[in-house]
Amino acid sequence: MARYIIYGAGAIGSILGAGLYRTGQDVVLVGRGRHVEAIRRDGLQLRAQGQLRQIKINAVDDLAKLKPKVEDRLVLTVKAQHTADAARTLVSAYLPTTPIVALQNAIRNEEILANRFQCVYGGLVEFSGNFLEPGLVEHTRNNLVAIGKFPQGFDSVADALAADLEKAGFQVERSENVMDIKWWKLVLNTNNALLALLGCWLQKGQSDPEIYSLMADVMEESLGVLRRAGIHPQAPAEFPPLDLAIQKLRAGETSCDYDLPPEERTYPSTWQDLQLKRGSTEVEFLNGEIERLGKEHGVLTPLNSLLLRLVSAMALNRELPGKYSPQEIKSLFEEAKL
Fold first, then answer.
1. Is residue 192's pLDDT more than 80?
2. Which residue, 140, 158, 176, sits at the end of a domain?
3. Please, is 59 exposed, middle or buried when counting C-beta atoms within 10 Å of its C-beta (0-12, 13-18, 19+)?
4. How many domains does the chain have?
5. Range of the domain at 146
6. Which of 98, 182, 191, 299 could pair covalently with 294 via S-S, beta carbons 3.0-4.6 A apart?
7. Residue 149 has what DSSP assignment?
8. pLDDT digits (tens, 9 = 90+) for 95-136
């Protein structure tokens, strides 16, 4: 039986690991010191669907505390800005033939891993979680995961992982072209920066006309760059294509009940990084990816470039999310387009 090493077990990694563990899989979470300390003392506290579960799962704060096994499967859930360091750490302990899957935002993680590992798999995470405090995470919405071999294809290792995730209660999409699905997610993620600047959670953003119009503008710019670059993002089976998603967002058709308790709101990872004053975010690998592609293909990206600059400065200065109002961002967008 495979042993799953969840490397970078914050909210998403802990939710994945807990699901696998509860079905009888051998799982080890590798995470930050205080989170691991709380898990080892009290178990992982997982809040989902109105219930709080205590899960006595194995956790370590240092990969050196584990003895590698031939049957290990590496699951990378760190933020994109930490992928290169994680790859160096993992390859120092594991053979290059060890299977590794990148269940992360952004689309360069697999490329980085492929420089050190021979069996790399791409993964889409289309569910949300909040890190409430060390030892306590919440699964707030959705449960979709997509899996495929990098750069293309699907094999028995991917199928075994997909089957294990399905047993754990996740909806799994098996894909021969998983990177096309990850490009789809990248366009959605370009709004992470916007919501962080506004101090806003997803449900409110999708329901407030002042905000969802800005979100639609950002997605439209991002999709235009991908099309000029010849990239064809593919939505998972149950989601609309991006052009229709933008149309629905702009028309207010994604509105929902957003008056939720704070712990049930879906905050993007960029918001969480600013809130925790971590000093860095994934913005360089999200909006920065669009900016780089735009420069390469002669497309201006004023909105993504502005979001990249503003969030990078806030992270560097350890500023909290919510620095800007929708009206201020709208004015800055209009200036950036001139």
1. yes
2. 176
3. buried
4. 2
5. 3-176
6. 299
7. E
8. 999 999 999 999 999 999 999 999 999 999 999 998 989 999
